[in-house]
Specification:
four-stranded mixed β-sheet, about 35% helix, nuclease
Length: about 110
């Protein structure tokens, strides 16, 4: 994922948490915040130490990044998204994570209509 498509700074995370809206399912919580001055979306990831060791957390983050990469044409541009993984995500494979993320994005109405 390119650098300009990532949220890295704590200040940016806090802005999305405080001003954005959230939607969730059992595996993920997603916060979204519209940004008028950008024509692309940015993604921030949060995977807690409660989900497992570093190997497990990095695997979850890789799966989420790849899922977002595959869904990038369907996601609405001009938004900041923060994705928080919950405990059940640790036992999921890539396809289950992609399906779950697609579901949570549909719940939040941030996917373009096909």
């Amino acid at each position: 994922m390119k650098k300009e498509l990532r949220i890295k700074k704590n200040k940016d995370f806090q802005t999305v948490f405080q001003q954005g809206r959230s939607f969730a399912n059992r595996q993920f919580v997603v916060y979204s915040l519209p940004k008028e001055d950008q024509d692309f979306f940015r993604i921030g990831l949060s995977v807690s130490k409660k989900l497992g060791n570093a190997v497990t957390r990095n695997k979850i983050k890789r799966y989420i990044r790849q899922s977002v990469f595959e869904l990038k044409d369907q996601l609405l541009p001009g938004y900041d998204y923060v994705i928080i993984a919950r405990k059940p995500a640790a036992e999921m494979d890539f396809f289950m994570i992609k399906k779950s993320l697609t579901h949570v994005f549909k719940v939040g109405k941030v996917l373009k209509n096909r």
